[in-house]
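User: For a teaching handout, I'd like to show students what a predicted protein-ligand complex looks like in token form. I'll give you the sequence and the SMILES for nicotinamide-adenine-dinucleotide. Please answer with just the structure.
Assistant: Understood, here is the input followed by the structure.
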Amino acid sequence: MNKAVIVGLDGVPYGLLKELIEEDIMPNLKDVLSEGVFTRMQSSIPCVSSVSWSSIITGRNPGEHGVYGFTDIIPGTYSVSYHSIKKLRAKPFWIMDHGKRYVILNVPSTFPAQEINGVMVTGFVSPDIKRSVYPPEYLGILEEIDYRIDVDISLIDKSRHAFMDDLFQSLANRVRLYRYLWEKVKWDIFMLVVTGTDRLGHYFWDAYEHRGNPFHNAFLQFFKAVDHLIGEIYGKINTDTQLIVLSDHGMELKHINVYLNAFLKREGFLYIDGDRRGLSGITKKTQAFALDPNRIYINIEGRYPRGSVKQSERERVVEDLITAFRDLAYNGNKVIREIYRREEVYHGNYLDHAPDLLLIPNSGFNLMARPEGEKVFGVDNLTGMHNPEAFIYTNQDIELDNPSVEDVLKIMGWKYEYVS
Amino acid sequence: MNTYHNDRLTCWNCPSAILRGNVDFRACGQSMRRFTSMEGGDVVIECERRPELGHFEPTINFSECPQWKPTKYGRLLDNMRVLILGIDGYLGWTLALKLGALGFEVSGVDNFLRRRMVREKGSMSVVPIASMEERIKAAKKYLDIDINFRKIDVLNRDKLADFLKEVKPEVIVHYAEVPSAPYSMVDADHAIFVQKNNVLGTLGLLFLMRDIVPEATLIKLGTMGEYGAPLTGRPLFEGFFPADAVLLWNGREWSLGGEMTPRDPVSFYHVSKVQDTFNVYEACKYWWLRSYDVMQGVIYGVHTDELATDDKLRTRFDVDEWFGTVVNRFVAQAILGIPLTLYGEGEQIRGFIALEDAMECMVRLISSPPEPGQYTVVNQVSGLYKLKTIAKTVAEVGAEFGFDVKIQRIENPRVESEVHPLEVVAENLPERGFRPRVSLEREIRRMFDLLSRKHIVRRLEKVKDTIIPRTWWSGDKRDPKVLGVYSPDEVREEEGGFRGILHMPLDSVFVYRWEDEEK
Ligand SMILES: NC(=O)c1ccc[n+]([C@@H]2O[C@H](COP(=O)([O-])OP(=O)(O)OC[C@H]3O[C@@H](n4cnc5c(N)ncnc54)[C@H](O)[C@@H]3O)[C@@H](O)[C@H]2O)c1
């Protein structure tokens, strides 16, 4: 196969790129799109980066790769552990074919860095930079260019300006690293993900939608910078190199947060001992709890330390939950558009760990599962929220019919067996 | 549902948790700064003992963690690594055996300063103790305990740093200070030495902990004497005013809740402990260190099961005017036929606790590590007694052993109030499951039993001259005058002075809740 370059733009919806091209903010992307296909792509359920990128790099659905969110309950507890690639049950493409040489830069949920034929720098969440790089010799160059895995999100609470600066700085440093690796490493497949786009969307979507917003211009500038990067890469590749540009999920204006665990408490499904942190205060009366963003788990006896729902009662609890969520409304507007049971959306060997129910919200309702608090609805300083509308572009001359994140490897021509 | 007092503690409390940073899932992001704060998103940890868990939120309950195993003291961390500074001392050695027997990995540091200071007085431990080498061998032989000992002066930060790196302690029990008030009042050299040893030793240790073992708990020994004995009778809370305390002045009112209570130390030694208190408190604030600052009452006694296993395992026991504590000295005086020496009125009230109970307190604190940044003061007493009550009790128990014991009042070489109220709040230990088990009489009996053995009586005779206090707070060096000699039944504890009031929320036979009645 020829060389391939994959550029990921985290959290960028199809519609946004359309608009930015029309408004001449992304002239390089416009050039690129003059050949090949550019279309909507269906994100994963839930539409969060950890799940979606796991599907993209393995070509599988969560029931097969086992990743259902950023967090998982640690067996025997109600504490959550964060995603690590060790939990991925399917092979990412760079393990399927050892014959190729790879540069895998900043793909989310790949921490800790594993041995690879090439170079890997993991993406968020990477809690320890020393374990984010393979081979470890490359740590030095990261330090030299002051590479950051992610922006410093805590800045947003201090200053939106400082946060915006950090977004640009992080992107600049990432570009430096990609340039370095592009030149210094022999590769067949180069994958690079930009994560700043997601952070920008979360905190500045209002700025994008309102021209008068003081950060409107900065928002556009950021995409100009991304466009510049795309143009640079486009200029460097041969015509026979495969180019894929894609996102993992979309973004839209958020109206209000919906705190699922608060709702479950209000409806009498969830009881948390108040002075405990997180879900660790769940008591025996609990029938169900939620994990971010939209996953509902039944407190099954035997599965959790204070599990109390018997298998024989499970179906009744599921029905009760569905009824309760159907009725959940804000100012007369229904919050939940769709409720899926796990077997309706997932298939594979790892269904056991899957949430019992998945909630799909109507637009503008941002589902969150924080365990604290009693209020069901609330606001914070985020103005953008995820939606399932990702995009994909490929410079190949092929037909794409309603693709999803699980199809990316196929689109790239990878041949592999589905096991189930 | 909660069987153990520490079931509900979580990884936040556990020294095995390695803080890694913050994630902020409001925007599914992270901040990659070195961990410096508890704010800005969720804290992420890894577990040193369970690396297979990856990165996770520090909320696993001890009851859900297989590493925290049930014991009669609550759950204890499997093979927990404890470093005892001052391991050769009265308490250090006792604790080493106790923890060793419970399965802790015990390391210890001492520079044998205490042995030197007692020699300086011309005295010795009347219960014979062997060299550290022999002690360690005996611990291995009789109790199958391995102790990793290093002779280090705590003031030598380089050496201590190396040992900390080697041991990686999860809890540090810091006994390594000069424990004597009279010693600090001898002269300028002694006062300066005590403050340097105690204050700078602890200050240096705090810096080393910050850099090497920030997750470890520091259990720092202070004393009830830090508070003094306020003449107003204001209760002695555990270091801080409770939430509903107020200051009223000039028709205005302020909350005192959460502020440190006043300290009123009673010697330059006690001042060193107060200085430690501030240093430890600040370090917890600046660097998220965690500490229990233990305001320990006067310890008395000779017994724990481990110490009693063999004569070679005994801990030191001093009776001289510098290093003997009051109950211990009284028993020695009783055996030697010296009338028990009450200073002045003998109406002084102090908090006391038997050696065995004090050790249980330490295990309870170790089983309940504070959270990062948490600085908690613990009042460690099991009873408040007037000194004349103590004297009377020693005399009475002495009579059971055939000793005819007299009590004498002598001039008070110290500067202290001899008649004062005392009200003490001690809630933190009972909350951690501590219940005093050893009554005053019971431990005094054990002391007579051990100290009246022939070989010990011979040693007592040898150090007889060191017992009467000659170190005056004024600087004088002279024998105090005798003000009166009494038989035990002439001493009535109900007559005169105040009664101590102890608030200890538990129902235990040895807990005294005296009426607050003045006589
Ligand atoms: N025994 C009591 O009644 C009592 C009451 C309240 C508080 N305390 C406190 O408890 C702690 C232990 O008391 P103890 O009775 O076991 O005293 P101790 O003197 O028997 O024990 C202290 C040990 O620390 C060692 N030490 C002192 N300075 C050192 C240094 N710089 N480097 C290394 N080792 C050093 C000594 O050699 C000694 O072995 C002291 O801090 C004391 O102030 C004791």
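For the handout, you might add this sentence: The pocket of nicotinamide-adenine-dinucleotide is lined by residues B 86, 88-92, 109-114, 153-155, 175-179, 197, 201, 221, 223, 296, 298-299, 325 (CB under 6 Å).
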